[in-house]
Amino acid sequence: MHGAPILAANPCQFLPPPSVSTAPAPLNAGPAGAGGRGGLYFPPAMIERPSPNFGPRPGDAVIDMLVVHYTGMVSAEEALARLGDPGSRVSAHYVIDEDGTTYRLVNEEERAWHAGEASWAGADNINDVSIGIELVNPGHDLGYRPFTQTQMDVFTDLATGVIGRHPIPPKRVLGHSDVAPGRKTDPGELFDWQGAAHAGIGFWPEVPGGTDDGEVLFAPGEKDPVIVEIQRQLAAFGYGVGSDGILDNPTREVVAAFQRHFRPEKVDGAIDRATLRRLEALTRLAA
Q1: Cα 236 from Cα 231, distance rounded (Å)
Q2: What are phi and psi of 174, to 5 degrees?
Q3: Which pTM was predicted?
Q4: CB atoms < 10 A from the CB of 248, how many?
Q5: Domain contains 179
Q6: Are residues 117 and 162 in the same domain?
Q7: Please, how many CA atoms are within 13 Å of residue 18, restricted to the half-sphere of its CB?
Q8: Which residue of the set 48, 134, 229, 265 is catalytic?
Q9: What secondary structure, in 3-state letters, does the chain show?
Q10: Which domain holds residue 88?
Q11: 245 and 147 assigned to the same domain
Q12: Are residues 102 and 177 part of one domain?
């Protein structure tokens, strides 16, 4: 959440009031085998909650990224109010409440304002090419807690449809913290990225545990040729990081973002052996 748009909203545009879709409009899920179900996909318990905070995508934009967020607010209603407030200049395509109720705020064809200042694989046009899904959760500042199983089940269902409708590869299913390391921490280490990957949504690097997993290999500020290679592997996957071989604060922020997604057991920005093993496995997966 909390993404600022690059394009301005049309302040004269008025949208209909929120309404419950008693018969949710079907979304084309694309051909079976492409990540969808084939035929039409009917979102579960979909409620239309239009937000005025969106704009057109560039004519040549290809939707090839899915960005996952948490709302970071006390309640679903508070989050929905902010996402629908023209003055907030933030939105998302979907919001999933803890009981699984799903709200559609912006049509997928439109550019929602969810990523803010962000970049991936050298590009900073994240809102142009992405679908944003928010999961209701207070977040790290207001009492971060596990996402409910119902939320995760509905997320899997919804994300499967999104991936079926758009050419989104596993390496571009990301968290907000991946595309904005140091600035954002959502959806955080309690989001079940492993379960999502097992359902065909994103990557998960499977590695056996070792007795030396917690061994920290480099001190903050240390410079080493091995750090250059680690930075290059992170950058090759898509993270915005330099390659000067110094474990400086920006590099540690990227390492922490990687850990939140791919090594959630310990998120501290330190390069330990478990983090290195996960990175190496992820590099092989993405090759």
Answers
A1: 8
A2: -135, 160
A3: 0.85
A4: 16
A5: yes
A6: yes
A7: 14
A8: 134
A9: CCCCCCCCCCCCCCCCCCEECCCCCCEECCCECCCECCCEECCCCEEECCCCCEEECCCCCCCCEEEEEECCCCCHHHHHHHHCCCCCCCCCCEEECCCCCEEECCCCCEEECCCCCCCECCECCHHHHEEEEEECCCCCCCCCCCCCHHHHHHHHHHHHHHHHHCCCCHHHEEEHHHHCCCCCCCCCCCCCHHHHHHCCCCCCCCCCCCCCCCCECCCCCCECHHHHHHHHHHHHHCCCCCCCCECCHHHHHHHHHHHHHHCCCCCCCCCEHHHHHHHHHHHHHHC
A10: 19-198
A11: no
A12: yes
pLDDT tens per residue across all 287 residues of the chain? 554 433 333 323 323 333 434 333 444 333 333 333 334 445 556 899 999 999 999 999 999 999 999 999 999 999 999 999 999 999 999 999 999 999 999 999 999 999 999 999 999 999 999 999 999 999 999 999 999 999 999 999 999 999 999 999 999 999 999 999 999 999 999 999 999 999 999 999 999 877 788 999 999 999 999 999 999 999 999 999 999 999 999 999 999 999 999 999 999 999 999 999 999 999 999 99
Please check whether residue 272 lies inside any domain of the structure.
yes
* Active site annotation includes 77: no
- At 92, the amino acid letter reads A
CB 196 within 8 A of CB 264: no
Please give the structure tokens belonging to residue 20: 């419950």
How far from the centroid of its chain's Cα atoms is residue 90's Cα?
A: 15
Distance, CA of 194 to CA of 285 (rounded, Å): 14
Backbone angles phi, psi at 68, to 5 degrees: -105, 135
Whole-number Å distance between alpha carbons of 273 and 246: 18
Give the total number of structural domains in the chain. 2
pLDDT for 44: 57
